[in-house]
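Tutorial sheet, problem 5. The two components below are modelled jointly, 822 residues in total.
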Amino acid sequence: MKLSKFFTKTEREAPKDEISVNAQLLERGGFVYKNNSGIYTYLPLGWRVLGKINKIIREEMDAIGGQELFMPALVNKRYWDASDRWDVAVAYRLKDEFGHEFALGWTHEEVITEIAKRYIQSYKDLPVSVYQIQTKFRNEPRAKSGVIRGREFLMKDLYSFHADEEGLNDFYEKVIEGYRRIFERCGLKTYLTEASGGAFTKEYTHEFQVLSEAGEDTIFYCESCDYAQNKEISKLVKGGKCPKCGNMTNSGKAVEVGNVFKLGTRFSEAFNLYFVDEKEQGHPIVMGSYGIGPSRLMGAIAEVHHDENGLIWPESIAPYKFILIALEHSYEKAEKIYQKLLESGMEVLYDDREEKTAGEKFADADLLGIPVRLVISERTLKSKSIEIKKRDKNTKELVKIKDIDSILTEA
Amino acid sequence: MKLSKFFTKTEREAPKDEISVNAQLLERGGFVYKNNSGIYTYLPLGWRVLGKINKIIREEMDAIGGQELFMPALVNKRYWDASDRWDVAVAYRLKDEFGHEFALGWTHEEVITEIAKRYIQSYKDLPVSVYQIQTKFRNEPRAKSGVIRGREFLMKDLYSFHADEEGLNDFYEKVIEGYRRIFERCGLKTYLTEASGGAFTKEYTHEFQVLSEAGEDTIFYCESCDYAQNKEISKLVKGGKCPKCGNMTNSGKAVEVGNVFKLGTRFSEAFNLYFVDEKEQGHPIVMGSYGIGPSRLMGAIAEVHHDENGLIWPESIAPYKFILIALEHSYEKAEKIYQKLLESGMEVLYDDREEKTAGEKFADADLLGIPVRLVISERTLKSKSIEIKKRDKNTKELVKIKDIDSILTEA
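Model answer (structure tokens):
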């Protein structure tokens, strides 16, 4: 993609109404546009990052047997009445002119449970799990954390169905392992944190927390064994003893990037979702529910991976792997190298803007956080070379143009 | 994917409240689930079909230079006030407890025009085009055509920005060619049909129409030169003379699967979206808007491609290319062939359900409309063969198992 043809531009200043680091950097870079408080457009750069995050999530959900589907946002009142969640504070409710009442889906336990009734009758139909990546709506009273707490946001929600608690427990562990892989692949160190069940369950649940000053939670955690508890339920103190390994615990603010819930039979009983076992006995199905917000995840990554000059995307989710910068009279040569990179299947952003100074181009490359910067100038061309610099390193390297193919494949 | 592990099952009978062919077949096959009138869940099979349709659309939109982004569904009242479209009949409107008023996005001209103001100032920023594939909401008074007319549905909407009418006209033709390729690749014969401008413009617009009894439109069309007009604006009659080539015109019911609009400066003037030309003179930007509904497209394809036994998906958008059916004592051998097909990267559904009869399995394969059926049974194994039958042909063929690799690559 050529920057001269790109829909968005970078901005020198962050919008005055954005106080969170993620929103400031993402807006300045042209990754997102704020339509209203908590309501964002994902611009081409941001949508590419989300596409990569979603691809990682899909791969890991498919690997544990999840089947992808797509449920509606208009969720009829009958669903919420069945589970007694019509009046939940965060729901956007509406009544149409035919008198139909809906809440915009802020979660989908109710909808998936009704659907499951059509397809699950016997123990032979279990276990099974389905997921979607879909827009959710929650009317958050405070929406000041950029894309970390949106009123409209992307969510991956996975639901699982089991014959018994044991089946649920096994799958719950599989999801936790899948989630660990997702966050690792996205470049995040997470703590699996014990937390309260909230509106869903009375048992403890688990959250995946990322340490960050942008977080709305506080966790106590142990750096030795990775044990962690949310402050809300914790009896731990900072500097106390970890109940697992005895080492000293620490505390910090954290962003919740994923959660796993054992729902038990709360929804299957509300919707009469039963199966018959080998002996033709009926039982309510045991369910689990597991969430990751891809747009929130993008925000958490921006909070963790940046410096004073801008974003530093992990390569796995960067919108482009390379940014090629042409300076002075090198545009002709740069165009050839750009075409060559495209032909080799490289994801490259080409800064071909002749009206911009070298300083402006370097600043934009840093702000956008593209992992590898390539510079062609009169100076580098004198030695038939191209300058390579990684976003997260300070060292530059001159590489002969004839050798760049192999270098870039390794980079 | 093994059918024994699949979330959905086929149904013998269509739901009684579905009168359209597409909804009957899609529900019976387990492609969609109706949550409410005009509101559907896309189940794993349907979501796979939509994924393939969306991929084709993305490829063709990218090829004409469209940049993908993703706008919100909650569209604040200020947007609609600016264009005087707050009171449009199809809009779902809501007011939250903070007093914010929104309509759920039934189209996005307003939102994209406001966003464009941040990034387009000069003639150097033009032309540019952006698109999204995103859920739209329209409170249709009648929603009886299955996924062809949803109250909540997927839409690909493309918006283009130009310095003048000439630039718009050039791009408009490029979009028409892109749309032709999309519909061809999805296995649909479409007529580019002149139609009225509706709420958007006073000029004629163009619709892509597919002849089908399920259609809500009537078109006059010429089979010789493909000229067509929507009955709403037409002075043509059936059996009359085509104004283009002089041959006889025909008439028929049709489903609109795409449309292209020249918006002119309607929205740029409403939102004050101006650019400065080379002489530093300001002008309102000239815009175009172009829609395709992927979920409606799936419905139209189901209407056109089926027989009395079920769906007949074109290979390009089939959820799986192959269905492998194991009969009698062939499960062990079938499992090996299934694994081999997966390893070769083939998309294959494996009917491993031992409790089902041959007749039930054949009926399901036909209903699901998978392009190529492979059968392994005691009989075929006697000659070390597998039976191959295409969904749209009546002939069967026995192929030696050792030769299937090359055969399937060609199939």
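Marking note: Chain B has two domains: 7-307, 320-410. Full credit if you identified this.
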